[in-house]
Amino acid sequence: MVSPTCSECARSLSASEAYELNAKIYCGPCVQAAAQRAKEAGQPVAVTRYVDKSICPRCNTYIGEGGGVAAGPVRLCLPCSEVVQNWPYPQWLKLSLAGLLLLLVFALAHGRRYFEAGKNLYRGEQLVEKGKYAEALPYLKNTMKIAPDSDKGALLTAKAALLSGDVYTAHLVLTGHEGGHFQNGDTAQFREVDALWRRATSALEEIEKAQKLEAQDGKEEEAAKMVHHAATVYPEFQHMDLLVNQFDAGVDFVNKNYDAFLARAEKEWSAIPVAGTASMLASALACKYAVSGDPAFRQRSEDMLAKAKDLAKDDKQSLDNLAEFEPRIRYRLESRRIITRTEYDKEFRSGKPAGK
Amino acid sequence: MFFIPGQVIAALTFPGVIIHEAAHLFFCKLFRLRVFNVCFFRFGNPAGYVIHEQSDNFTAQFFISMGPFFVNTVLCVLFCTAAFLPVWELRVSDPLAYFFYWLGLSIGMHAFPSTTDLSHLWKAAPALAKKGNLLAILSLPLGAILVVLNLGRVVWADLGYGIAVGVLGPIAIFRAISRF
User: Fold this and answer.
1) Which residue in A7, A327, B76, B127 is deepest, having the highest Cβ count within 10 Å?
2) DSSP state of A315
């Protein structure tokens, strides 16, 4: 190891007292004067602390003046020069990074079912934005199976359901979402769904009232008006046109306009071929037979009754309805007399309606 | 705005510090630069560092300075993508998802290169940009934004960046995927 000497005042220095400027060694006071001169001469003035080049700056091993291996601005001992040339990744780092990659794979695998739900959510959202509500609904319903508490999912599903007329699904989603509570009831999305929900339920209440009213003789026109109004309030309701058609058919029956009644019953049956619409068509055909005596109407009416029975066989509610309905149609076909349900009940059921 | 000592933040988000320094080291090795010292994590300022020799090669400078920014950002997006849906959109109580989100945000928060890293690029980029060097052209606006964001660390710009990347990244990915 060689002690540094100030190139200006020739004082012998310890390593901590020595400075370097433009490849010369100086003591503290001399380096300032040398820097000033260098500045005036337009030379570099980068003063650095003296580094003892006879020892390796990394491990302090003696390498001798000019010994060791040049590593950029310094000279290092051979082992240190190999380390800096190819700095090794520590074992713990390699293991940690491998663990991190495994964790990433696990995280992505763990999130797979969420990805599916999310994909459905975004697909549904895009379809809702395009106004394709019925198309969006299956995607959003799938999302809700995994995330029933998602505000966004619930509101989008309810919106898509309400705007495609599926009030039942909207009801299930909204009540199933944390008991009907949302984190923020002041968002535009929430307010929109709330307004839709109020519109739909008010229309449904009106329809329910109309159904009760229609059961009373002489109230058919009033009931039909209520349903027409409900249709203006909530036109999106599934099969609203058929519901209106059904109430209008009741008015046609009362007004003895059996051709119109038959046309409406045919429309109902072709749109929804179930026991109820088959019975309605059987009723309209029986009316036509009663007024015309054309046996073709009677034959078709009986065929429709048979179809109604067949369609109702697995449904208790439909069977009960048919049990009440069928004797009246048969009476109409046998007697060619068209009487209302109340009149029929009065004559043949001691004034009490049969069944429900 | 509230103040939390940097050491506490670094401790809470240590995976990001380690990955940042590991990325520096990786690019130094890739461009065969000498590395004089490495600290992957410590309770101090800076929380980690890699001391390496300077290179005259701008591509090496660019990747050594900006490499951690890209690596941390990509890892942040990936981990947050795994956790984004249950945490933000689906509101599913899944502790693992929250763990992954913490990991993603921790990594994203330490994406910014230090001002020292950027200063090397900043010196060399203008002259090379004039010669049409694409990396130099790219590094000018990117560097400027990152300098501003670095200054914004006092107002949690690093956390803001982590959240932005951890939310907007997955949203962009899922929106793109859902179109197919």
Assistant:
1) B76
2) -
**Helix (H, G, I), strand (E, B), or coil: what is residue A177?**
coil
CB A21 within 8 A of CB A31: yes
Cβ-based burial of B43 (10 A; exposed 0-12, middle 13-18, buried ≥19): exposed
Domain residues for the domain of A53 are 15-85
Tens of pLDDT, residues A183-227: 777 888 999 999 999 999 999 999 999 999 887 878 889 999 999
Q: Which residues of B touch A123 (CB under 8 A)?
A: 178
Give CA separation, B59 vs A86, B29, B76, B82, B165, in Å.
Answer: 19, 14, 24, 32, 25
Residue A258 CB neighbours (<10 A): 22
Residue count of chain B: 180
Contact state of A143 with B29 under an 8 Å Cβ cutoff: no
Q: How far apart are CA B79 and CA B166, in angstroms?
A: 8
> Which residues lie closer than 8 Å to A322 by C-beta, 6 or more apart?
A275, A279, A308, A309, A312
CATH at residue A164: 1.25.40
- What is residue B2's predicted lDDT score, i.e. its pLDDT? 60
Q: End of a domain among A132, A162, A183? A: A183
Work out how many domains chain A is built from and give that number: 3
ipTM field: 0.87
Give pTM, 2 decimals: 0.67
> Mind listing the pLDDT tens digit for each residue in A27-48?
988 999 999 898 888 888 888 8
